[in-house]
């Protein structure tokens, strides 16, 4: 693969390094948010096997991360998987990869907007502020939570327009606080909890059923989702290898935090309490270990994590749209850079506006817990799809390493293929399970056909948009020759 030259007017500024990359990837995966709202949901599915499911989900994601890292070294590109899959496999598959990635992230931003507002309301409740102007505040109300979160999303987007350097500095301080709180509370919970420890917590073969395993894996993979956001800013990193290092380091930190938190939660909370508290799991965990005001610290960390993940989501999404606009598959409006800061400012604000509109549409789902469950299932299916396509692109592009460098091929070919097969099998099984779970459609988070509708709309709209870009826009992206080079990476021997 070869980098296409960019004129100074269309090139983004190289303003971040490896530490900033780690911060961006860690903020995108939002470990504190995943722990705070995801562990309770997973516990209701897999029981007392949170550490096992997090370990199991890490393996295919790690394999796919190897493919991302190697592709990024060969061609750093703001479009990342959209560009790589299109060049190596098929422009239709490449466009679909970029489209579902963008749409899935916007859905994530919409529901995280609500989660952010819910965390703020929970925090107000712990400060004994339970009503405003006679209105009772309810952290599980999607209306109240969404309206509060929308203000936060707008502020996060404005910081992102200002530049990656400022956004990374802000996220770094938020991460330091979040991880400090998590380590302190979870570390204390390991020793203070009164639930008996068991090695069976780490045994995936003890998970109740294949359906529970598949559903739990989707939720767990979703927790790791976002590490690849660092590759979308690789055109703004001084050394492309820094993006790869940032992604791998962030993934490793995520694994350790999830194992620590999963074990600590199960040491402190009985299964019933853990699963019943859902999106309020981290706040409840804090109240079991400390009195106010210390008990509010985990909730503040959750709020900071949600804010950081909103900002860390809009940044790579805007760059993905920038790359698609640059290729002519989308309008040129997405390529407009801020004259002073060199960021895709118009795209950032447009994506924010779409996420805000989607957050308002999601008000048809009455509770935050149901909204999270519906969004995570939908995103999980499309994430499995575009991760698998990116892994397949890596395996095809670097297949020559199977002959020339078998050890390097483990990371660039074998690992991605195994990861892709695992996620495709997982996604396929989940789709089949949802389809068989009901015989009618209902606008409800626990209706299987509704759960399938959202990813189907994401994929279907992507195919329609691709047909428009090829037929009406006549984008060169669809008519260039497929990549046939083996490797233009000067560091190809590892």
TrEMBL record:
The keyword Transmembrane helix applies. Keywords: Cell membrane, Membrane, Transmembrane, Transmembrane helix. The chain crosses the membrane at residues 21-46, 52-71, 92-121, 141-161, 173-192, 212-234, 246-265, 294-315, 345-365, 371-398, 410-435, 447-469. GO terms for cellular component: plasma membrane. It comes from the Bacteria. It is a multi-pass membrane protein. InterPro entries: AA/rel_permease1, APC_superfamily. It is found in: Cell membrane. GO terms for molecular function: transmembrane transporter activity. PANTHER family: AMINO ACID TRANSPORTER-RELATED, MEMBRANE PROTEIN. This is Amino acid transporter. It comes from Streptomyces colonosanans.
């Amino acid at each position: 693969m070869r980098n296409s030259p960019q004129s100074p007017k269309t090139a983004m500024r190289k303003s971040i390094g490896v530490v900033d990359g780690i911060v961006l990837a860690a903020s995108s995966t939002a470990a504190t948010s995943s722990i705070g709202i995801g562990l309770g949901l997973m516990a209701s599915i897999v029981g007392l096997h949170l550490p096992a499911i997090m370990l199991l989900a890490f393996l295919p994601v790690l394999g796919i991360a190897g493919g991302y890292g190697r592709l990024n070294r060969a061609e750093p590109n703001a479009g990342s998987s959209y560009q790589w899959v299109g060049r190596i496999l098929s422009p239709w598959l490449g466009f679909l990869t970029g489209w579902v990635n963008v749409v899935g992230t916007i859905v994530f931003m919409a529901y995280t907007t609500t989660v952010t507002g819910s965390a703020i309301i929970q925090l107000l409740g712990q400060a004994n502020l339970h009503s405003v102007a006679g209105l009772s505040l309810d952290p599980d109300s999607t209306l109240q939570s969404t309206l509060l979160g929308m203000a936060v999303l707008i502020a996060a987007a404005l910081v992102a327009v200002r530049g990656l350097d400022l956004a990374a500095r802000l996220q770094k301080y938020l991460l330091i606080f979040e991880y400090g709180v998590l380590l302190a509370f979870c570390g204390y919970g390991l020793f203070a909890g009164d639930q008996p420890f068991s090695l069976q917590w780490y045994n995936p073969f003890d998970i109740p059923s294949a359906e529970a395993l598949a559903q739990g894996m989707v939720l767990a993979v979703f927790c790791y989702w976002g590490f690849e956001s660092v590759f979308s800013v690789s055109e703004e990193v001084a050394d492309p290898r820094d993006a790869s290092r940032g992604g791998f380091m962030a993934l490793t930190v995520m694994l350790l935090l999830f194992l620590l938190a999963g074990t600590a939660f199960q040491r402190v909370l009985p299964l019933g309490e853990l699963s019943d508290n859902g999106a309020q799991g981290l706040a409840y965990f804090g109240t079991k270990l400390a009195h106010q005001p210390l008990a509010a610290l985990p909730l503040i960390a959750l709020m900071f994590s949600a804010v950081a993940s909103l900002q860390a989501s809009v940044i790579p999404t805007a760059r993905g749209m920038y790359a698609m606009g640059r290729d002519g598959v989308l309008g040129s409006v997405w390529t407009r850079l801020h004259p002073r800061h060199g960021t895709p400012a118009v795209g950032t604000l447009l994506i924010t506006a779409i996420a805000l509109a989607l957050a308002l549409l999601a008000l048809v789902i009455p509770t935050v817990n149901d909204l999270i469950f519906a969004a995570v299932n939908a995103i999980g299916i499309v994430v499995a799809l575009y991760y698998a396509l990116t892994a397949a692109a890596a395996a095809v592009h670097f297949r020559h390493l199977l002959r020339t460098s078998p050890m390097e091929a483990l990371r660039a070919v074998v690992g991605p293929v195994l990861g892709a097969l695992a996620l495709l099998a997982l996604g396929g099984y989940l789709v089949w399970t949802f389809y068989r779970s009901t015989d009618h459609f209902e606008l409800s988070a626990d209706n299987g056909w509704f759960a399938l509708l959202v990813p189907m709309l994401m994929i279907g709209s992507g195919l329609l948009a691709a047909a428009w870009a090829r037929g009406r826009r006549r984008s060169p992206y669809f008519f260039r020759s497929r990549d046939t080079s083996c490797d233009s990476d000067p560091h190809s021997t590892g």
